[in-house]
Amino acid sequence: MNRLIVFILFTLLSCPLLAQQAAISLERAAQQASDRREAMTLYYQSAEKYLPTNPAKASLVAHQSYLIAIDIKDNVMAARAAYLNGEGYSRQNKYTDAKFRYGRGKDAAIDAKDADFAIKCLDKMAAMARYEGNTAEADTYKRQAADLRRRLSESGATAATSNDNRPAPTDNRPAPVNQNELNAVKEQYRVWFENQRQLRVKLESDVALLKKEKDALNINMVELRKKEQQLAAMSQQAQQTIAQQNSILATVALEKEELDRIAVRKQKLVEALRNENLLDSIAFAQERQEQAYKLQSAKNFRNVLLLVLAFALVIVGLIYRRFLENQKQKRILQEKNHQIEDERQRSDELLLNILPSAIANELKMDGKAKARRYEQAAVLFIDFYSFTKISEQLTPEELVNELDTYFKAFDFIIGQYKLEKIKTIGDAYMVASGLSDRITSPLSIVKAALEMQEFLADMRIEKSRENKPFFEARMGIHIGPVVAGVVGVKKFAYDIWGDTVNIAARMQEACEPGHINVSEQIYSEIRYSFNCHYRGKFPAKNKGEIDMYYVNSISK
Q1: Is 60 exceeded by the pLDDT of residue 476?
Q2: Alpha-carbon span 87 to 101, nearest angstrom
Q3: Residues 6+ away with beta carbon under 8 Å from 372
Q4: DSSP-derived secondary structure for 204-252
């Protein structure tokens, strides 16, 4: 019985691990597949395996399958991949993101004429709206689903087919096709991320090397202090030696005095001997003795003087050498400090390119940034109209280059008005103003939106002359309280949340291409500065109905 229980527990624990391993294997096979349809199928199967244990990873892998399906125009598979992508976000409780992915699945299912699957996606979108507390939006999705069911019942249809007249897949997967173009795009992104990773590794390596060199300089300073102590000890020893030499000189002086006394006594003896006719011989001997004594005293004094001078020269040489070494070490330390300061400035510039200056400074000081609430923040949502249809007319490289051109122009415009770019999600672009402690007016964000529409109008004229597809944008603006902060630990991002963000997004969804749709709150702030016209009411969560206005131009 115990063995049976252990076997059952082992089976239950190993099943998720086996499923996770199977998902990883399928994902690797998809990455290595040379056929695009095969890669699409493998990504989809991998996402199904990831979903029970790792919904975040399942969303990413399902999105890869969706991109390939859109690229090869397989609407049936695109609808199912988008639905699986929405399931991953739903299990992470990211209802807004999930609703957006279910919407993609609904659009693809309608293009594939699969009404049943479109109804399934609408039901999921209604459920997500209920989870967000937006009953009005949920009722709208329910009405759309009921209308599809009615039309499906009237036509007697029960299933749909894809663009190539194949049955809509349930458990079977489409046959694989080539994906060389998608691999080229993936390779570009991989090379870019690898370059960024190598740059970060190099910076970290340089900083570590500078720290090691600084530690080595500190060790050298310690050694110099030890040598300075040794020189001090040698100087003290030299002073002792000089004191000994002075003592020797004092002894020599005493001996000289004693010799002088002896000489006096000898002089008296000479006088006595002179009486005995010995004066000449004694004077000669005395003179020779005095000369010898003087020579010896002079020699001793010269030797002592030379010894003292030599020792003094050694001390001066050591002191001068220590001075030169100190100057050299100071120069090296100053150069290293300049290098460290340059690297710090480069790191600060990279951080300020990702986050607002106040948030970046808080991260540097405290290692984290607290979330903040702003009572009057204006939020602008931008979305390209018919992005999916236009993207089908362009290669992946052309699509990425086009988005880069448009987003660079948007970045330049908001920089002129000192607005804060929050993020881009696919073809969506979000901007905010008023994210500071001082109260700001929404005039600048409306002016920036008008300049963006002017830029899009110029691009539309230029593209039309070249007979190329062009983008038109829908823009929505709302003002109110938001909460802003940094989320995540690795690859962290600055983001904002709140009803203000959701209402701005709804303003954009209710807008027509080429227009700027603003809420009643924005209109009350800008009505004397811009020409606007009334559009009607729009239901908002917990806000009732909100009046909407189109901004046409700046008042003269």
Answers
A1: yes
A2: 9
A3: 483, 484, 485
A4: HHHHHHHHHHHHHHHHHHHHHHHHHHHHHHHHHHHHHHHHHHHHHHHHH
C-alpha distances (whole Å) from 441 to each of 412, 417, 422, 435, 524 are 20, 12, 18, 11, 11
Distance CA 213, CA 200 (A): 20
- Three-class DSSP category at 423: strand
CATH architecture group of domain 371-554: 2-Layer Sandwich (3.30)
Q: Name which CATH class applies to 2-158.
A: mainly alpha
Q: How far apart are CA 167 and CA 161, in angstroms?
A: 5
Q: Does residue 551 register a pLDDT over 90?
A: yes
What's the chain's average pLDDT? 81
Structure tokens at 413: 């415009």
Picking from 406, 472, 411, 413, the residue whose alpha carbon sits closest to that of residue 447 is: 413
Amino acid found at 281: S
Give residue-wise pLDDT tens across range 409-436.
999 999 999 899 999 888 899 999 988 7
End-to-end CA distance of the chain: 88
Q: How confident is the model at residue 171 (pLDDT cuts 50, 70, 90)?
A: very low
Residue 248 makes CB contacts below 8 A (sequence gap 6+) with 304
Cβ-contact 429, 382 below 8 angstroms:
yes
Reading the block at residue 216, the tokens are 């080595």
Distance CA 475, CA 447 (A): 12
Residue for token digits 């600084």?
214
User: Which residue's structure tokens are 């811009």?
Assistant: 530
Q: Give residue 480's identity as a one-letter amino acid code.
A: G
From CA 8, how far away is CA 5, in angstroms rounded? Answer: 5
What is the β-pairing status of strands 472-487 and 516-519? parallel
What does the pLDDT look like over 238-267, one tens digit per residue? 788 888 878 887 887 887 888 788 878 877
Residue 400 to residue 404: CA distance in whole angstroms: 6
Query: How far are the Cα atoms of 121, 144, 159, 496, 532 from residue 114, in angstroms, in the given order?
Result: 11, 15, 6, 37, 41
Phi/psi class of residue 498: alpha, beta or left (left: φ > 0; alpha: ψ in -120 to 50)? left
